[in-house]
């Protein structure tokens, strides 16, 4: 008898921002959509958060929409462009705290984006990069960061594409790139 019941998709992240100019309320927190820029793979939203009887807080949400849960984006180029837009904004902003990155479980897509940003900054600063070491370090603090083998491979593809775009190639004489061999534990 239960096999005839419809299967409802599991909600993995609540839709906490409004779809239009009408604010939405979550308990004592009101969220207002101030602006939105919709692109092919992602959307950037400017939100205003207001707690009852307290000051407001502007929030910029970078929403990558074409990244499937447990999967990877269709190409490295849009992800690198997204990371560049995000990094430029982070480097320019003077207000607020650290960025908040989330996906459904907070490990797979979240971990991949965080690792990509940190590793590309490391590459620019040190002319070397170690994806395996960094992901291992991330997993010491939060298990399953960069959750799937496909996400780990995608991370490497993004780094290699970044090197190609910047005219650098992985060699022993210039940029050092950790051996991409890995063990998925």
Automatic annotation (TrEMBL):
Gene3D superfamilies: Protein tyrosine phosphatase superfamily (3.90.190.10). Residues 80-153 form the Tyrosine specific protein phosphatases domain. One of its GO terms (molecular function) is protein tyrosine phosphatase activity. InterPro entries: Prot-tyrosine_phosphatase-like, Protein-Tyr_Phosphatase, PTP_cat, Tyr_Pase_AS, Tyr_Pase_cat, Tyr_Pase_dom. Keywords: Hydrolase, Protein phosphatase. Its EC number is 3.1.3.48. The keyword Cell division does not apply. This is protein-tyrosine-phosphatase.
């Amino acid at each position: 008898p239960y096999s005839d019941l419809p299967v409802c998709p599991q909600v993995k992240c609540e839709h906490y921002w409004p779809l239009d100019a009408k604010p939405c309320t979550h308990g004592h927190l009101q969220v207002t959509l101030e602006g939105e820029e919709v692109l092919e793979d992602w959307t950037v939203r400017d939100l205003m958060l207001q707690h009852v009887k307290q000051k407001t807080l502007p929030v910029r949400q970078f929403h990558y929409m074409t990244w499937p849960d447990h999967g990877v984006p269709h190409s490295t180029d849009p992800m690198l462009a997204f990371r560049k837009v995000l990094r430029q904004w982070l480097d320019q902003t003077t207000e607020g705290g650290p960025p908040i990155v989330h996906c459904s479980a907070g490990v797979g897509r979240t971990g991949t984006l965080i690792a990509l940003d940190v590793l590309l900054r490391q590459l620019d600063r040190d002319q070397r990069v170690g994806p395996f070491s960094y992901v291992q370090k991330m997993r010491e603090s939060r298990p399953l960061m960069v959750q799937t083998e496909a996400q780990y491979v995608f991370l490497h593809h993004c780094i290699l594409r970044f090197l190609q775009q910047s005219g650098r190639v992985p060699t022993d004489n210039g940029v050092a790139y950790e051996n991409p061999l890995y063990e998925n534990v």
